[in-house]
Amino acid sequence: MNLRLELPPFVFNVQSSVDFVEKNLNTMYPDSILQNQQKPADYYVSLEKVNGLRKFIRPQASFRFDALEPFKPLPLNHAFASLEWGMNYVVANQSLEYVILHSGIVAKENSAVLLPGPPGSGKSTLTAYLSGRDEWRLLSDEMALILPGTTKVQPFVRPICLKNKSVELVKRWYPDAKFSTTAKNTHKGDVVHFCPSDHSWQNRDKLATVKAIVFPRYDQQVDLEITQLNQNQGFMQLAQNAVNLNLHGQIGFDTIVNLIENCAIFEVVYNNVESVKNFLEQDVL
User: Fold this and answer.
1) Count of domains in the chain?
2) Closest by Cα among 169, 138, 136 to 7
């Protein structure tokens, strides 16, 4: 298999010898993204079966980028997840034209909300819920690509990585949506990828302006608890989620400051995603 994925602002050339990787790509990505073979690729990646005795005893696959192997081989059933994680790795380490934040990001029309959070905070589940509602769209599940010196963000629309209990939740919310095969027993647990909405794909080239920064945290015991943060608190937390801040020097620092000075900043503890959506729509955007 050799496919070219047009994923604004990048084009990936993807090779794989694992059959179900191609099946998942065709399920997760629209034909318009898979069929454009004219544009030159920015990045060449592959996901190949590991040869030798291991392929009979414990089949594995290895992600490669420009002939480099940045990760250890993973079990074969992790192959599609490994490809998605690998593409994130490539962008995070190579795309110096953006200040990159480890964050979910969604937008209502052209007003975006950053959702930075560590693993287990519910970031991806909340991102999935919001991006599937009317008028909301996904910009990214994993990384916000901020244009340096601005509050503008470039969408990087890709499938959303769901883990463990969040998989059943999102399938219940969106029973007609498309989902990948399950990567069982990864370092994140059981992983399934969730296909973004048609609205998100159709607006994948459309920049948005960050209007709010929300640090979410799921807590089964708390319906909704909102704390507004001051700029110092917001800066410290947001800077911790900056992927390549040190490579941008002063312009990177100024970009984070610009976001903090021009956005409402909140910590939100919740157990009901609809309550968070209502808060954002009624009190933030």
Assistant:
1) 2
2) 138
For the domain that residue 251 is a member of, what is the CATH number?
3.90.228.20
Domain that holds residue 68: 1-94
Residues 11, 5: contact at Cβ < 8 Å?
Answer: yes
Q: Do 31 and 120 fall into the same domain?
A: no
Q: Give the SS3 label for residue 36.
A: coil
The secondary structure element, H or E, covering residue 171 is helix 165-173
Residue whose C-alpha is closest to residue 224's, from 263, 170, 277: 277
State how far the Cα of 192 lies from the Cα of 86, in Å rounded to an integer.
15
First to last CA, the chain: 44
| Residues 134 and 273 reside in one and the same domain | yes
User: How far is 201 from 32, CA to CA, in rounded Å?
Assistant: 10
The answer for residues whose C-beta is within 8 angstroms of residue 149's C-beta and 6 or more apart is 251, 254, 255, 258
- Looking at this protein, which amino acid is placed at residue 129? Y
> Helix or strand or coil: residue 198?
helix
Residues 262, 121, single domain; the answer is: yes
Residues of the chain with pLDDT under 50: none
82 with 106, same domain?
Answer: no
Output the pLDDT for position 187: 87
Of 166, 112, 105, 114, which is closest to residue 140 (Cα–Cα)? Answer: 105
Cα 241 from Cα 53, distance rounded (Å): 41
Q: Is the peptide bond before 40 cis (omega within 30 degrees of 0)?
A: no
pLDDT in tens, 230-273: 999 999 999 999 999 888 999 999 999 999 999 999 999 999 99
- pTM for the model stands at 0.93
CB 187 within 8 A of CB 89: no
